């Protein structure tokens, strides 16, 4: 295991944003030997659902002991809580707005803490940039060995998006698009079970897809198809084209999955 603390960042700031560097600067001032990893800074703006999935997908291969900061925070500066989630031996730091829902749904959660003491914050705290002044400093403190009980208290109330709690009770399933990747493939909230269920059709506002292939190498040109992606979720794509651009699909769109026994 790497002896240096590993800290990741996931935001909707944009890939060319100086705000990302500002967060890293504050972190590195306090813990210079940290290994800093960017998960993504291209989460769709203000899209907490997409941020939740991207955070889980990007951090699930990291080892226990790693720390993960997520700032997709349309409610910055309001009274929403700041929380730390202990899950699978990792720590997740960010706003209490549902952005940790996918991690909570798919991980073994030990505890969830609300930050109640500002002792580790960067002061003065900006009303518009808690990533720099609150969340990066908290991550640095935790990486330095600070005890959560020093500045936070356990909580059982937090914002949780139920989109990943899909009921597989047919004959149809209501799901959502939780992320559109850079190739234009739409990832659904549906993590496909190995229980004999089969998909007959996937329908959205502007499309209906009934064919499936194991990968893009088998697909026909210009034909939308569904497949099981590397994360174990159902995805929809088109060979060498952007499914999302052609059909106007975005994270948060509702989808109906019709099943056949």
Task: Explain this structure.
The structure is a single chain. With 261 residues, the protein is of the alpha+beta class. The chain folds into two domains: 6-154, Rossmann fold (3-Layer(aba) Sandwich); 166-260, Bacterial fluorinating enzyme like (Elongation Factor Tu (Ef-tu), domain 3). Helices cover 21% and strands 30% of the residues. The chain has six helices and 14 strands. The protein has helices at residues 18-30, 48-59, 101-106, 130-143, 148-151, 243-247; strands at 6-11, 35-40, 67-71, 82-87, 90-95, 109-115, 152-154, 172-180, 186-191, 198-203, 208-209, 225-228, 233-237, 254-260. It has a seven-stranded mixed β-sheet. Strand 8 (172-180) and strand 9 form a beta hairpin. The longest helix is centred in the middle third of the chain and has 14 residues, at 130-143. The protein is elongated.
CATH homolog superfamily of the largest domain: S-adenosyl-l-methionine hydroxide adenosyltransferase, N-terminal
CATH architect. name of the largest domain: 3-Layer(aba) Sandwich
Number of domains: 2
Strand adjacency order, main sheet: 2-1-3-5-4-6-7
**Largest sheet, described in full?**
7 strands, mixed
Tell me the overall shape.
elongated
Helices and strands, in N-to-C order?
A: EHEHEEEHEHHEEEEEEEHE
What percentage of the residues does DSSP assign to strands (E)?
25-35%
What distance separates the N and C termini?
46 Å
Please report the number of helical segments. 6
Mean pLDDT: 96
Overall radius of gyration: 20 Å
| CATH level 1 name of the largest domain | Alpha Beta
Q: Look at the helices and sheets and give the structural class.
A: alpha+beta
CATH topology (level 3) name of the largest domain? Rossmann fold
